[in-house]
Specification:
It is built from eleven helices and nine strands. The protein is α/β, with parallel strands linked by helices and about 280 residues long. The chain has a single domain, classed as Rossmann fold, CATH 3.40.50.150. Bound molecules: S-adenosylmethionine. S-adenosylmethionine (SAM) binds next to helix 1. The site of S-adenosylmethionine has 20 residues, from helix 1.
């Protein structure tokens, strides 16, 4: 995983974790720093100078939003299982206490490596002990049947919160429709989804043009090179789900007292949606 000159899609997980480690107070992620390494630091510096310096904070704010939301849902006894799709190196299981059942799903190479490192750090006392159910899956493949039974064996009728952040951008529309249909089959009424996507208008911004240029230069993408954006009505018109909260980088920044430095045109503004099943 460490020796290629190009960045692979799964390696974006290292960069995301590193961003979160750069402002722990804002992200609320005090363990992200464990993932930092010299190769990622080089990628990150290159990315920040070529795309958007504000992206450290956009990633911290995203983590903070979902951390706060999940904490609230746990406190109100509304969720028992957190299922993180495209979980990368996010550290929610260690930040959310030990009452939650955790399922983390990502490409096999990511979950295998994550499991290895988390075991190592737990044994060394750098992380509290947590039980995490890892499942290796590629969302571009035919995964539904097998994944459905694996997840149901763990969930056994308990209430769930499905999180999909920093992932849809890498999927195409067909894979995205498929994954949301899959969520609907998995979930019961009153279960939740947390989803992150860019709106179509992002494509007009300087930041997005720079991001695409950077990805085209550095990142291997195997399917169509059209990165996914979604309008609000994608969620609005979703069968059986209602939007119960919708925020973005700007609105969450106001809530947590974070001062935005850059101009809007140079910021990759992600939208965060909290959906509840009818
Ligand atoms: C930018 S990282 C975000 C990780 C994590 N959700 C976070 O916010 O820290 C994107 C993640 O999506 C995963 N991913 C992208 N395409 C995928 C696919 N087709 N199947 C499974 N995982 C995928 C990558 O492996 C990577 O871990």
């Amino acid at each position: 995983m460490d020796n290629t000159s190009n960045i692979e899609i799964h390696e974006t997980a290292f960069v995301t974790a590193t961003f979160r480690s750069l402002n722990e107070k804002l992200s609320g992620d005090y363990y992200a720093k464990l993932w930092t390494n010299s190769k990622t630091n080089l990628w990150m510096k290159d990315y920040l100078s070529k795309v958007s310096t504000e992206d450290v904070f956009t990633h911290c704010i995203r983590n903070r939003y979902f951390l706060d939301i999940t904490r609230d849902l746990i406190k109100q006894h509304k969720i028992e299982v957190l299922i993180n799709f495209g979980s990368g190196f996010s550290m929610y299981p260690f930040l959310l206490g030990d009452s939650l059942i955790n399922i983390e799903i990502d490409k096999p190479e990511i979950v295998n490596y994550k499991q290895l490192k988390l075991n190592e750090w737990q044994n060394q006392g750098e992380l509290p002990k947590r039980e995490i159910n890892f499942i290796g899956v590629d969302f571009s493949q035919d995964y539904e049947q097998d994944l459905f039974s694996k997840i149901n064996n763990i969930v056994q009728g308990k209430s769930t919160f499905i999180l999909i952040e920093g992932v849809l951008f890498f999927l195409n529309l067909e894979e995205t429709n498929r994954i949301f249909n899959f969520f609907s089959k998995l979930q019961k009424p009153n279960d939740y989804i947390g989803s992150v996507s860019y709106r179509n208008t992002i494509k007009k911004t300087t930041a997005f043009k720079k991001l695409i240029a950077f990805f085209n230069e550095k990142v291997t993408k195997t399917s169509a090179d059209d990165y996914l954006t979604l309008e609000d009505n994608y969620y609005d018109t979703m069968q059986n789900y209602n939007i119960i909260d919708h925020q973005d980088y700007f609105s969450v920044s106001t809530k947590v007292d974070h001062t935005i430095i850059e101009e809007e045109d140079t910021i990759l503004n992600e939208h965060f949606y909290l959906l509840k099943k009818e």
